[in-house]
Amino acid sequence: MSEPQSAPSSKPAAPQKTTRRKVLKVAAVAAAGVAVGVGTPAVLNRALFSGRPPRWRFLTDAEASLLDAICAQIIPTDQDPGAREAGCVAFIDRQLVGAHQRFAERYRVGLAALAATCQALHAKPFEDLSSAEQIKLLEKLEQGQAPQEHWKIVSCGEFFHLVCDHSMQGFSGSPRHGGNKDYVSYRMLGLEYPDIIGQNRYGIRS
Amino acid sequence: MALPHVNAVIVGAGAGGGIVAKELAEAGLSVVLLERGQWPRYDQNNDDELVSQRTPALGNPFGPDDARYRRVIANADGTTRIVVPSQGEYNNNAGCVGGGTASYGAMAWRFMPQDFRLKFTYGEVEGSTLDDWPIRYEDLEPFYEKAEYEIGVSGDHTLNPFAAPRKKPYPMPAFPYNKEGQIMVQATKRMGLHPFPIPMLRNSVPYNGRPACIHMRSCVGFACPVNAKAGSHNTVIPIALATGNCQVRTGCVAAEVVVDDRGRARAVWYFDANDQPQEQPADIVVVSASATETPRLLLNSKSKLFPNGAGNNNDWVGRNLQGHGYVGAWGLMPDETYEEAGPGATVAICDFSHGNAGLVGGGMLANEFIRLPYLFAGVRPPGEPHWGKAHKDFQRRYYKRCLRLVGPIQEMPNFSARVSVDPAVTDHWGIPVCRLSGSRHAYDLQLGEFLSKKAEAIVKEAGAERVWRGGLGLGLSGGQHQAGTCRMGDDPETSVTNRFGQVHQIDNLFVADGSLHVNNGGFNPVLTIMALAYWVSDHIKADWKASKFRS
User: Which of A201, A204, A205, A206 to probe by mutation at the B interface, max B CB count within 10 Å?
Assistant: First the structure.
């Protein structure tokens, strides 16, 4: 494999600075989730009473770490930034309490299933596998060939395709949703940004 | 308590409803135009691919929203599931003033004369409810022309030898071909085919007080920041409002057409923007809510004489749901084909629209609209990885070096492809939702195979290094081109409305949208929906003069 090995202790990007306003915002989002019957009181509790402000809106730190390792294989970093630099986990986390709320439970169950699968097959966390091992396991998921006992609630194929699709959204979509940080994917494609009304085609920026 | 009586209430401010509102308001009728969505705003979601009508990954910018709307998909095995508008299976059409015309790609096709007489031209197709329209192309021709001039179309019919006969040229000159279009023009000409510029409901020059196109890459799926793209929201509806006779009520969701015991439409029940129920009495009711929402509203309108829904005594409301299976071919090119200019679809051929040996119908082929990055991330040849290093390499290498030629096939109507209302599931307002069931007719696969092979040959001729075809599955067809569910016809036993869009046996209830289509042509349907809206309006105005609707 020519791509760099993912660092064994890879963790999500450094915690963002948290302000009182941000905590309240997280609480408000969680409360809205509760109001429509999808969020869990645990999310609210974690936000308000853990004494430590949460890094993520939906994911636990452990889930975010695992998801980050998956996303980094779906869109690896090479000469151009990948899912990690684009902030795909931040994008997905944000959407799981927003537009993708209906997938939230599938993430919770699927990430746990992958962790269990990995323990059963390799006796260590996914994040600690070599890059080649990670790819091999993800291919198994994609093809629906992971051991079935861990994937009774959500199928491994469905889970993988969900994460794959959402990673592409986070990488390629507008930065306003939390991914594509600094327009990394537009830069990679040579796509002009921002799209200036009526001007880009005349080469004003080139 | 009922609201003050008006002459006409129209449900749905899209391509059809906007035109009917303008025609009736200009004729002096008092009109209320109900629209479930809002006025489209460009600035909320500009250049945001994830919130576009084309790839609504995070929701539809022009509605409907995922929170309040849902539908039920009924599978062949008896299982059902609930879907929301941002999911493909919902078969969404936009919900805002302008409907789909606020954010469409704006191709402005006239159907061909044969499209109105498919059964006459080709004979029966086994298992299909294929039939001829009760009207001919010649009946609709003046109304196509009216749509082209009042909404505004750019094009050049002289370059298309298969073009339907017409009396006047397009009001605006055609758009030039883009880079991809030029490649296709050369390839098709070498093959003896007949390329020509796609007619567009988009200003190539300033027209009707709106400026010329500025070629945003975020065009199809988005609203136009300068209103160069013409829809009902920036043409006919403002004219209707200027008469002083028309009121547009946004955020209003129709629940039922009230039909009295004598079989006359009396009013429309709806929920207003504050979710309060309202009753709007009228002399005439026109339903133009799309080929899924129109049958839903009729089916939810039960009365003494129509216990199974308005106009549904013969079980034809909601039947024959059609859309357009899109087939074609992708090609990967040695050199750049990309231009930072939308909407990108510039060239078409009609060589395969009709007269294909041994086949019924056919389809137009055109070069594809501009591909934005998330959409292209899902485009890969068979066997090519959908993630990982190789996927990223492909994205980098071919984003600006690809071609696509694609077109809608003429679908064969299938009686079991169906919109009904679900017995249990309701929306935010408690109104029973659409239940979609059935599949497309198997013949579509044969036609799709034929047309995609033609596209493949052209893309190869264009010099592509690698070419692959895209075909169809048997799944239900509908989507933004949805049509056919309230068929017009002369025989009340096998249709829902007469040739004027007037629901059989309910003289003051009309349909004016794609639901009327007997079949959906091998073309984008919007100009035909617009022409039919003018046609239906013409009939309403003539009857109005004779005071037929007063009782």
Answer: A201
